[in-house]
Design goal:
The complex is a heterodimer of chains A (110) and B (114). Chain A is mainly β and 110 residues long. Chain A has strands at residues 3-6, 11-14, 19-21, 23-26, 32-38, 44-50, 56-59, 62-65, 75-77, 86-94, 97-100, 104-109. In chain A, strands 2, 5, 6, 10, 11 and 12 form a 6-stranded mixed beta sheet that branches. In chain A, strands 3-9-8-7 form a 4-stranded antiparallel beta sheet, with no helix packed on it. Chain A has a two-stranded antiparallel sheet with strand order 1-4. By secondary structure, chain B is mainly β. The termini of chain B are far apart. In chain B, strand 4 and strand 5 form a beta hairpin. Classes of the chains: A mainly beta (110), B mainly beta (114).
């Protein structure tokens, strides 16, 4: 079935380090891909999305490119801040469904 | 500013109690969802609703029911709470096209069943 696999966390980085959180997916058809972020004590909020192959989603310095050939949607940021500490969820959407990955905890130390 | 609100942030109940979790959205969205969030498992869909009085089972509906009498309100009901239903419950809403449109989430209700 359709599924999303994310790299396990927690990921711990120092401020200004480069961030990559890997996400791969299995899907029939051509899903939309999303990254959601959950800050401590809050619900999830959309960070970025891409709806077709080779699309790049970007927001708040984060980027992810929809790679159909590798079925991936890795999240990257060039320089993380302490305020980026959160849980990041990769998700795929198609039809009437949104499928989430397990989430990756990111901790950024000053 | 769009908003999804949930009736409680924290709730403690006893095994066997009937539990109601309420969710309200002010965006006139057709779709509403209930998820549970557990460490290492991500979000799992319990039920969703695409219109008033309409509901569809998600991936883990056992032990839960839902009610949507008004467009803005979606309730999750645990008929007889059990300890394995201790979890974080998240409500969300979206416009049509579930797989393509952004879902807006409430802050969550952390339910503990003793």
């Amino acid at each position: 079935g359709d599924s999303v696999t994310q790299m396990e966390g927690p990921v711990t980085l120092s401020e200004e380090a480069f961030l990559t959180i890997n996400c791969t997916y299995t899907a029939t058809g051509y899903p939309s891909l999303f990254w959601y972020v959950q800050y401590p004590g809050e619900g999830l909020q959309l960070l970025l999305k891409a709806t077709k192959a080779d699309d790049k989603g970007s927001n708040k310095g984060f980027e992810a490119t929809y790679r159909k050939e590798t079925t991936s949607f890795h999240l990257e940021k060039g320089s993380v801040q302490v305020s980026d500490s959160a849980v990041y969820f990769c998700a795929l959407g198609y039809g009437n469904k949104l499928v989430f990955g397990a989430g990756t905890i990111l901790r950024v130390k000053s | 500013d769009v908003k999804v609100t949930q009736s409680s942030r924290y709730l403690v109940k006893r095994t066997g109690e009937k539990v109601f979790l309420e969710c309200v959205q002010d965006m006139d969205h057709e779709n509403m969802f209930w998820y549970r969030q557990d460490p290492g498992l991500g979000l799992r869909l319990i039920y969703f609703s695409y219109d008033v009085k309409m509901k569809e089972k998600g991936d883990i509906p056992e032990g839960y029911s839902v009610s949507r009498e008004k467009k803005e309100r979606f309730s999750l009901i645990l008929e007889s709470a059990s300890t394995n239903q201790t979890s974080m419950y998240l409500c969300a809403s979206s416009l049509g096209g579930i797989g393509y449109n952004e879902q807006f989430f409430g802050p969550g209700t952390r339910l503990t069943v003793l």
